[in-house]
Design a protein that fits this description.
Blueprint: H1 17-21, E1 27-35, H2 39-47, H3 57-66, H4 68-75, E2 100-106, E3 110-118, E4 125-126, H5 134-139, E5 146-158, E6 161-172, H6 175-210
Antiparallel strand pairs: 1-6, 2-3, 3-4, 3-5, 5-6
Helix pairs in contact: 2-6
Length: 213
């Protein structure tokens, strides 16, 4: 019996935006799902994703616990009462939520976002990235802060199926911040994975009916 000779493509892979703006990182997490929809349809569903509409019981409970310190502080007169955003649009090149900036989009391939903060604190402190560019994000190195880069990508699996991926990377600027974040990440990692899978499931659930699946 003749064994087929494996073939490979010599075409170079396009650089991902997340690799351009945060190539080196402390921790990362990647989740995948397979949508029963073609690439263009899956991209449309991804582009229209509203992160504020991604819900699961565990996710909602985790978010409530996460903002509890800020709510207590507000009742004690030490800050404003946190308000849940009504819309967190992913596509369009703009920031989907306060504290985040767009790292760019590649049509029918990738949407990337970035943020800077002290996210290991009970009450997250976000760095003002309003005037920050993607290149400034890439070179940011102020002590005591960390950077998060996240992206969604789509790749054709078959003509009628699409591989949808969500990746998150985090890098800190100094050893003390790295230690603080490492302790925080040990606790929060399962919840982050759950939220990422919920977002991918939301996109898949939107794409497949559009494709007639």
């Amino acid at each position: 019996m003749t064994t087929p000779t494996p073939t490979r493509s010599d075409a170079p892979m396009a650089e991902l935006l997340i690799d351009r703006y945060l190539p080196h990182y402390d921790v990362g997490l990647v989740e995948h799902t397979l949508a029963e929809a073609d690439l263009a349809t899956t991209w449309q569903a991804l582009y229209g994703l509203d992160l504020a509409q991604v819900h699961t019981p565990l996710m909602d409970a985790a978010m409530s616990v996460r903002v509890l310190p800020a709510r207590v502080a507000a009742r004690l007169g030490r800050g404003a009462q946190p308000e849940a955003p009504t819309r967190l649009p992913l596509g369009g090149g703009g920031p989907p939520m306060q504290g985040w900036l767009s790292l760019g989009e590649i049509a029918e391939r990738e949407i990337a976002l970035g943020a800077v903060g002290r996210f290991w604190r009970p009450d997250i402190q976000w760095y003002d990235v309003t005037a920050m560019t993607p290149d400034a994000f890439a070179s940011f190195s102020e002590s005591g802060w960390g950077r998060i880069a996240a992206n969604f990508t789509v790749l054709p699996y078959t003509p009628s199926r699409t591989l949808l991926t969500y990746e998150v990377r985090t890098a800190t600027a100094d050893p003390d911040a790295a230690r603080r974040f490492a302790r925080y990440w040990t606790v929060i990692r399962p919840f982050v994975g759950h939220i990422m899978r919920a977002a991918l499931a939301t996109v898949r659930a939107d794409a497949e009916p559009r494709a007639g699946r």
